[in-house]
Amino acid sequence: MVEDLIRPARGGRPAGRPAPAVLPSALRASLGLVAALAALVVLVLGVLYAGDTGPGAVDAWIQSAVDGAGPPWRHVALAVDFLGEPLGAAVLTGAVVTGCLLVRWPRAAVLAVAGPGLTVGTTMLLKPLVGRTIHGDDNLSYPSGHTAFLTAFVLVVALLVAGRRGLGGAAGTSLVLGAALVAGAAMGWAQVVLGAHYPTDALGGWCTALAVTPATAWLVDAGRPRHR
């Protein structure tokens, strides 16, 4: 997807014409509905698990399925987890920002920073409000910031690719949501395997990204210059 972002759009962009929207108009309705439903899930899970210090029934069932992962899988989980750490996140974000600037799409560069940044910021605000903990009172767990970051990052890249390629309707929505699902599932799995989060924490982080990132893209587009 990063190659599609850097590769110029077919036929190039005429001089003087504004760059495409970071939230393609054809996807606004569908992603707006997804964002609203995701926000509702974040709220419901936050209420259900507020103040909890252990796994729920669903968490325990999923955790039992991944318990006993051998060293190879644990190494994979650590590698995925690194993508959500400050250094890994900075490398990923820097690569996309550089690509956006190379194709002279500064608003896309803004979204590449603001989308994941605001998403992670939202998880940091929610954690003390929900008060769910894992492995001690100092480890607030809901929602998962790592899962939220990687989902938001991949969601941003998919949005930009859809905009550059002119994908709309079912194709664009499938690309964006499919990419977000893969990213969220990968990071959520890693967090559960490493014992850093409950599965429902990962679900909450995934939904936080789905709720915040499209809204951030809409705000970035709100200041986009219009042309006659």
Topology of helices and strands:
Blueprint: H1 2-6, H2 25-48, H3 57-66, H4 71-82, H5 86-102, H6 106-130, H7 145-165, H8 169-193, H9 199-222
Supply the key terms:
globular; mainly alpha; 228 residues; single chain
* Biggest sheet descriptor: none
Distance between the termini: 31 Å
- Annotation field: number of helices: 9
Give the amount of beta strand, in percent.
Answer: under 5%
Mean pLDDT: 90
The helix content, as a percent range, equals: over 70%
Q: Which blocks of ≥5 consecutive residues have pLDDT under 50?
A: 8-12
Estimate the global geometry from the Cα principal axes: globular
Structural class: mainly alpha
Tell me the Rg in angstroms.
18 Å
Question: How many DSSP-defined strands?
Answer: 0
- Following the backbone from N to C, one meets helices and strands in this order, namely HHHHHHHHH
Q: TL;DR?
A:
The protein has 228 residues and is mostly helical. The protein has helices at 2-6, 25-48, 57-66, 71-82, 86-102, 106-130, 145-165, 169-193, 199-222. It is globular, with a radius of gyration of 18 Å.
Question: Can you offer a commentary on this structure?
Answer:
This protein is an all-alpha fold and 228 residues long. Helices cover 71% and strands 0% of the residues. Helix 6 (106-130) packs antiparallel against helix 7, helix 6 packs across helix 9 (199-222) and helix 8 crosses helix 9. The relative contact order is 0.21. Mean pLDDT is 90; it is low at 8-12.
